[in-house]
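Quick one - first record:
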Amino acid sequence: MDTLVKYRDTIQQQLQEYTEIPYAYGDLQCRLIISEDKNNFLLITQGWEDDLQVHGCLVHVEVIEDKIWIHRDGLEDGIALDLVNAGIPKNQIVLGFHPPEVRPYTEFAVN
């Protein structure tokens, strides 16, 4: 299987699992949005909690060239570990939400 296809399929599968977990409060849904080119994946929360509209990005993952960039990760345990457990090597994942000078101190790719 082509690496790009494997990355896209793995990201989609991992994020899809989160859409199936119901919220314990409010009238909220978790939705997965995938760009037409299948290189950007957004996991959003939307709905209502009491009288307040909720709409926000939990996770933003992008495939850039041969790496998976995590731009936003609001999950409790982090999407990076889910991807690693699904077989993606740490050296192929960039924690893009960290400043460039911090990335060398993570176990993941710098860029």
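second record:
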Amino acid sequence: MPTSAAGHALVTGHTVYACVMGSRAFGLATDASDTDRRGIYLAPTPLFWRFEKPPTHVEGPREEEFSWELERFCELALRANPNILECLHSPLVEYADATGRELLALRGAFLSREVHRTFTRYATGQFKKLEADVRQHGAPRWKHAMHLLRLLHSVRDLLRTGVLTPDVGEAREDLLAVRRGEVPWPEVERRTAALAEQAAAAESRSPLPPEPDRRRVEDFLFRTRRASALRCAETGAYEEVV
């Protein structure tokens, strides 16, 4: 995991977008919740002209902070990565410069019916881990069970409406009851199956396009990289760009 001083300098000096994610963004925070920060940095274009390329992601420099380089972030978003897409739709944006604001305006280009495959694949993996917990320990990790249901709620509603809303809204109390272990595991299983069925039914009627708009995203990246190169040329900052 890149945590070098140069990586941290990219985050502190070249972040274009930063937000809070996790339970606070989902409307599920408690007094014990951490503050999970996520961000996107734009590595200056001349860094890509060297043999050693800039890192695609950086952990830190603050606790519970993780950032992606813009191109890597866009690649993952085009693949409908659940964590990445939710990051772009966080209700708790802490910073966005001109590039970040353009990315936010572009976030609909990343959404497609592919979310059904990626979100449910991730949910299936989590469900298998919870089943293993039940077999080994007699109970699942309830926090993980809560987030599994939250994710399925999210993708179902996204497929139905075409809008990704991380905050769980009125489902908060029901989900927190799962986290506290107040909902029996068989009921969690039932809810999981019901939400998965509802998401599958919503896919065929979804207002989302079959695929993301890759061309719009590539155009954005091209213009952003070119502008970065021109800024470095104007200032002569080709050696110490970080």
